[in-house]
Amino acid sequence: MSGPLLRVEDLHIALKTEAATYNAVEKVSFEIGRGEAFGLVGESGCGKSITALSVMGLLRRPLSLSGGRIILDNEEIQDASVAEWRRLRGKRIAMIFQEPMTALNPLSPVGRQIAEMFVLHQGANWNEAMDRAEDALRQVQVPSPERRIKDFPHQLSGGMRQRVMIAIALACSPELLIADEPTTALDVTVQAEIIDLMAELCAAKGTAILMISHDLGLVANMCRRVAVMYAGRIVEQQDADAIFAAPRHPYTQGLINSLPRLGERSRRGRQRLQEITGVVPSIAGYPSGCRFNPRCAAVTDICRSVSPEITPLPADGLVRCHHHG
Ligand SMILES: Nc1ncnc2c1ncn2[C@@H]1O[C@H](COP(=O)(O)OP(=O)(O)O)[C@@H](O)[C@H]1O
Ligand SMILES: [Mg+2]
Predict the structure, then answer these.
(1) Which of 27, 38, 98, 197 has its CA 20 to 30 A from that of 190?
(2) Residue 264 reports pLDDT greater than 60
């Protein structure tokens, strides 16, 4: 088959309040190839999760899709019916969230929740589905899966719960896995294990990943191409190595500067990170011109009044900054 697996084209998400309608996400476009790991990075509040939810058909009021197309395997899905979305989710696109406790049913043993995927999407009978659930738990390296399938979510650690979520997400071998801050709630050591596991399983199954995180280091490690999002817009997109070697947007530079650096920690005894000053503006308070301008060290007059256009960069990259040179 030709074409990318997923094409998000000119996506707009509206936030309707009593006072006004705002563009929560504006002109967001990206493509993910079959089996490719693509990263979406930005601070909290930049619009990453609602972008992901729109690809899952899960936007709910007060948010709605107000423009653009979502194309899965050459087929437009943004206007799919409730029933069509239900068929797509789990089977072709699956998602794991930051907090598995909210996604898991607290009253149902985890084995049953995995087995449900096989029953629902593949017409398996329950006996067969429970066997396959045990295999799925083994695949995500949960110890003693034959016992663990009977556990309820609260009996498992955070890391184990996220493994269960991965098992559920990958049960029906979806073409795309959306991982939205999948390790943010976990200990650092567990984080790395979960990321490695996810990357390994997806590589083995040929599953594409949309990896979403506020952590540029984590995303760049896992993904070949990375998009940086700020206040509802993609402000830069490049190959992961190029992002670090030659970041073109001051916001990207800020994200890099705020990453802990190896070595510095040991010398100083304590990490001193260079945080980006200021905060992500709220949707109702997006500044005019470049939305990053109030926090930008390189700001000039034009940045305050004119919204920067997209400038293409080599290798399908792009930057949205008046001073990108
Ligand atoms: N249900 C909602 N109602 C109103 N505003 C929302 C809702 N969900 C998200 N938002 C707003 O949309 C913006 C983007 O949110 P989100 O996609 O969750 O950001 P991120 O995932 O990058 O942290 C934020 O300003 C957030 O406050
Ligand atoms: Mg989020």
Answers:
(1) 38
(2) no
What predicted TM-score, i.e. pTM, was given to this entire model? Answer: 0.95
Closest residue to atom 7 of ligand 1, CA basis? 63
The verdict on domain 6-92+174-319 having CATH code 3.40.50.300 is yes
280 C-beta closer than 6 A to ligand 1? no
In angstroms, the CA 155 to CA 109 distance is: 10
What mean pLDDT do residues 10-30 have? 96
DSSP state of 19: S
User: Measured from the CB, is residue 50 less than 6 Å from ligand 1?
Assistant: yes
Q: Which ligand is nearest to the CA of 180?
A: 2
Give the C-alpha separation, 260 to 266, whole Å: 11
Total Cβ atoms within 10 A of residue 215: 17
The three-state (H, E, C) secondary structure of 155-197, written as one string: HCCHHHHHHHHHHHHHCCCCCEEEEECCCCCCCHHHHHHHHHH
Where are the domains positioned within the chain? 6-92+174-319
